[in-house]
Automatic annotation (TrEMBL):
<keyword id="KW-0472">Membrane</keyword>
<keyword id="KW-0732">Signal</keyword>
<dbReference type="InterPro" id="IPR002326">
    <property type="entry name" value="Cyt_c1"/>
</dbReference>
<feature type="binding site" description="covalent">
    <location>
        <position position="203"/>
    </location>
    <ligand>
        <name>heme c</name>
    </ligand>
</feature>
<keyword id="KW-1133">Transmembrane helix</keyword>
<feature type="transmembrane region" description="Helical">
    <location>
        <begin position="247"/>
        <end position="266"/>
    </location>
</feature>
<protein>
    <recommendedName>
        <fullName>Cytochrome c1</fullName>
    </recommendedName>
</protein>
<feature type="binding site" description="covalent">
    <location>
        <position position="64"/>
    </location>
    <ligand>
        <name>heme c</name>
    </ligand>
</feature>
<keyword id="KW-0479">Metal-binding</keyword>
<keyword id="KW-0349">Heme</keyword>
<dbReference type="GO" id="GO:0009055">
    <property type="term" value="F:electron transfer activity"/>
</dbReference>
<dbReference type="GO" id="GO:0046872">
    <property type="term" value="F:metal ion binding"/>
</dbReference>
<dbReference type="InterPro" id="IPR036909">
    <property type="entry name" value="Cyt_c-like_dom_sf"/>
</dbReference>
<feature type="domain" description="Cytochrome c">
    <location>
        <begin position="48"/>
        <end position="219"/>
    </location>
</feature>
<dbReference type="InterPro" id="IPR009056">
    <property type="entry name" value="Cyt_c-like_dom"/>
</dbReference>
<feature type="binding site" description="covalent">
    <location>
        <position position="65"/>
    </location>
    <ligand>
        <name>heme c</name>
    </ligand>
</feature>
<dbReference type="GO" id="GO:0020037">
    <property type="term" value="F:heme binding"/>
</dbReference>
Length: 275
């Protein structure tokens, strides 16, 4: 018994000594927790933030990252950022994204798309809401060649695809201003970012204060843009979250009422039986 407790004590002491050493040897940082509007069982997306985030994606990230699982019309789908528009001071809902003026304008602003005309000739025409977003590269090799060998991943489901999800993306985007520790060797084409596993990232710092001019006048600080683009990417990765949560709530309510009814009938059915 004594040896067991001695071994345990030694192991505990080793852990206490080893922990700071492990940290010194360079462990990437846990992302900061952010208070997202969609946290919790009733949380919903902040539509204004998702709209601003789309603007950041389009003006900054789209140069290098695609969102291939989304079509333009998704922006106007139920639960999407442009489902409701403010027209002459009135909130108007557009049930069909193809008739939604904001979504149509977004589509027409993007690069034209290749199509074929009535006689089979290849033409370029303006995009429509039913089209996909343009992809920045023709193929992966081109993407790597343009980025010093690193491939910018598709961002449509990145929030689901990374540990710590939205908190990670936000911290990563804001994490370029940290002092480089002495034991980290930053080679050309890499940047120090303590939130990236490995702490070196081939993506340059892309956000700078006031680099976008928000349509709603919000000051575009780095943190604001990081928050907003993460809202957009969180919505993109899970556009049906809101309806799923309200469905879950209705199911719980239904089960609760059913449980009450079952209990009442149980009492009634067994009321004349002596226990
Ligand atoms: C100049 C091109 C460029 C731009 C602009 C750019 N990125 Fe990147 N991004 C990259 C490259 C290259 C990588 C791959 C980095 C690596 O593997 O080291 C990357 C990786 C990422 C990753 C994945 C990190 C990981 O965990 O693997 C995320 C998330 C990301 N970018 C988000 C964004 C967002 C959001 C924006 C817009 C605010 C943006 N990027 C703008 C080039 C870019």
């Amino acid at each position: 018994m004594k040896t067991v407790s001695r071994v345990l004590a030694a192991a505990a002491a080793a852990m206490i000594i080893a922990t700071p050493m492990a940290m010194g040897a360079g462990k990437y940082r846990t992302p900061e927790q952010h208070n997202w509007s969609f946290n919790g069982p009733f949380g919903q997306y902040d539509r204004q933030a998702v709209q601003r985030g789309y603007q950041v994606y389009q003006q900054v990230c789209a140069a290098c990252h695609g969102i291939k699982h989304l079509s333009i019309r998704h922006l106007g789908m139920p639960g999407g950022p442009f489902e409701y528009l403010e027209i002459n001071g009135e909130r108007t809902r557009f049930p069909n994204p193809n008739d939604n003026p904001a979504v149509v304008a977004i589509a027409e602003d993007l690069f034209p798309i290749e199509d074929i005309d009535d006689i089979g000739d290849v033409i370029e025409r303006p995009r429509r809401p039913s089209d996909p977003f343009p992809y920045p590269y023709a193929n992966e090799a081109q993407g790597r060649a343009a980025n010093g060998g690193a491939y910018p991943p598709d961002l449509s489901v990145i929030v689901k695809g990374r540990h710590y999800g939205a908190n990670y993306i936000r911290s990563l985007l804001m994490g370029y201003d940290q002092e480089v520790p002495e034991d980290v060797d930053v080679r050309p084409g890499n940047y120090y970012n303590p939130y990236m596993p490995g702490m070196l990232i081939a993506m340059p710092p892309v956000l700078m204060d006031d680099m976008v001019e928000y349509a709603d006048g919000t000051p575009a600080t780095i943190e604001q843009m990081a928050n907003d683009v993460t809202y957009f990417l969180a919505w993109a990765a899970d556009p049906h979250m809101e309806s799923r949560k309200s469905m879950g709530f209705m199911v719980m309510g239904y089960l609760f009422i059913l449980a009450l009814l079952l209990y009442a009938s149980y009492r009634k059915i067994w009321s004349r039986v002596k226990h």
